[in-house]
Known about the structure:
This protein is mainly α.
Amino acid sequence: MSLWTRISEALAALTSGEGLTAIFDRLRSPPERSVAFTIAVIALGAKMAKADGQVTRDEVTAFREVFQIGAADEGDAARVFNMARLDVAGFEEYAARIADMFGDQPSTLCDLMEGLFHIAMADGFYHPGENRFLEQVAEIFGLPDTEFRALRARFVPDAIPDPYTVLGVTPEMSLAQIRGVWRKMVRETHPDSMFARGVPQEAIRMAEKRMVDINRAWEEITKERAA
């Protein structure tokens, strides 16, 4: 059964009057967490789209880049997006339910934030409203400020990314300590690791950019230390 078929079945429960927040509670078991992850990114992405006042074609395209959405599945994806956009529930409630669901897997919450950053930058502009939105979601998720700044440094092209910020380390740390952080990030970025913590196969392509970014940061630091 495909991911989008499972999402369609989950959404069918909404005919009984349940909202998206209730759907998150129904998808707590590990086999269904990939469904919850996908709905979470689309739902929060829809709420974030309201933060800058408009939904652009670029943002819709970004969903297709985060998730490999086939033509037959676009209707279900659009249904989740529109339901979240029109739902009276605030994004804070969505984020709190998601944080509770994945609280034992902080790396999954970081994966989810990565998808939201990708969508935020789809139109090439990081709107102040989007920044406030993502800061608040990160706070609800319990994401450390160093990790949030590392994500922003990788996705927002307002300056050349500082390699230490990208890895979430400091220049005061030894090369051995930084190597340990880099290796941990590489392990967590492996597709098998991401799939094991609930990230659907359809979204694993997010890891490609992350691997490039963290390896480039590590190379810059090792070159700097060797000089």
